Amino acid sequence: MTSDNTDRAFLAEVLAHGKTDVEVTSGPLARALGTTIVSAVPRRVRLRFALDEGHTQGAGVIHGGTLTTALDFGMAFSVLTELDEGMSAVSVNLNVNFMKAVLPQTVYVDAIAESVGRRIAFANARMTTESGILVASGTSSLVVQEFRRA
Predict the structure, then answer these.
(1) Which residue among 7, 20, 101, 105 sits deepest, i.e. has the most Cβ atoms within 10 Å of its Cβ?
(2) What is the CATH T-level fold of the domain 6-146, as seen in this structure?
(3) Where are the domains of the chain?
(4) Which residues, in sequence order, are bridge partners of residue 41?
(5) Is the pTM of this model over 0.90?
């Protein structure tokens, strides 16, 4: 039996059955961020994150590392929708721009895999509030490789 990235396998199941509004249960960090796959098609995902007071820093706003993690999930997931069983993608470069402070609330990440090659992929993402206000964006380079459990 081939080992597989649990997120990739979860996304493959979502895509195969055209599921929407699916709570991500493939990993503990996704669960801790209240992650839901709103929609997914090859190379594109829309994720929802329920960010609460537990994700804030001292000033009462959501920690930048938490927002970065949400963007990274989106970009990685967009690439994983293109990969076969036994393959994975690992972020090797992540660039994030913060436009506004984010209070505890639900945010959305729309991510696109711009290019997925045999060895490297490129993705971008935008994070918005429920009212559509852009609060952060990011780009990522990811290495495509055979999955290996760390």
Answers:
(1) 7
(2) Thiol Ester Dehydrase; Chain A (3.10.129)
(3) 6-146
(4) 44
(5) yes
How many whole angstroms separate alpha carbon 5 and alpha carbon 72?
Answer: 16
Could you tell me if 67 and 83 are in contact, meaning their C-beta atoms sit under 8 angstroms apart? Answer: no
pLDDT tens profile 30-51: 999 999 999 999 999 999 999 9
- Give the tokens for residue 110: 């729309």
Q: What are the tens digits of pLDDT across the range 106-148?
A: 999 999 999 999 999 999 999 999 999 999 999 999 999 999 8
Strand-pair partners of 31: none
What are the beta bridge partners of residue 138? Answer: 96, 125
**What's the CA dihedral at 31, 32, 37, 42 to 10 degrees?**
-90
| Cα distance between residue 34 and residue 95, in whole Å | 23
